[in-house]
Model the fold of this input.
Amino acid sequence: MLVSVVWLAPAILATIDHVAQQRLAGEPPAGPVELLFAGGDWLVYALLTPPIFAVSRRWPIERPRAGRRFTLHLLFALIFCAAWATSGKVLQFGLRLLFVPDRVHAAMNAADGRFWHNAGVDLLSWIFTTLPFGVVVYFCIAGIAHAIRYFVEANDREVQVARLSEQLSGARFAALQAQLNPHFLFNTLNTIAVRARDGDGPGRARMVEQLSDVLRRTLTRHRVNEVTLEEELELVRQYLAIEQARFSDRLRPEFAIDSGALAAAVPSFALQHLVENAIRHGIARRTDAGRVAVAARRAGDRLELVVTDDGPGIDAQAAVQPGHGLANTRERLHAVYGERASLTVERAPAGGTLATLRMPYRELDAEPADAAH
Done:
């Protein structure tokens, strides 16, 4: 780790300082024990830096648990001080045993059996002596670890924002393309023409208004990535109303929406894509009446959206090919929520297709009506 290598600089400078101080004081040149300990004591930090980084990654000081995390890191700082002081004393004893063993044995004999007791008292005293400086060093290293983490996360967020912006543009285009594809537009206009010939003025006007509303909602959404569930359901209802007019009595939409979840944040166009696929791969393949059910519920801190149809069933593998609306939705879910969200497409037990979208529950203020225009 680069931060560990940085400790070479103070180790070298400490060794140079020890040599210079000996010369300035007119004392004999420092021996290998003093020189190696002067630099080696700093290198102990290099060994302790990776664990501090690991602890900072595992328990970062951030809201809403900043107070408890700070207390936890204060405890780790005390452990760090004890480890640093103990390692320094062990290093010092090892160097003396290696280079001047006679002096060590002489000191042990002179202590008359109390050598290790005295060594323990000396270690405890050294721990308390280094405590203030050690705590400061710990939090400096932890601060560097947090700064690096925040920098990396900020950079990742910028990449995600750019990716989500691109994906949202693709989703908007895909949704608009779905509304304007020749079959959809032809059938919609043909239905309007039939109602005009039959003298169904109110029905014709209603379909024109619905088509206009669907296109307006598709084109004027300006959020980067999310809308409220209520906004998404408004688009879905208008879309289904047009498709219901196209399929006449062959399409039976059903809704089971938890009213307490209407303010939940959902990826823009995500639910609309699921409904679109249910109609394309389910209802459009039936010769008789078919059902598309849309359900939404909150389960604790999770939001679950379910779209089912009673068609012949969709090929789950074909539904997630690159460029497909479901694949786009999956990528956006992963970019925003990571592993906390999922989208599954499978055959329903009673036949047809079951698409389930799960994500963390988070409320989003509804978009003002004038902003949507």
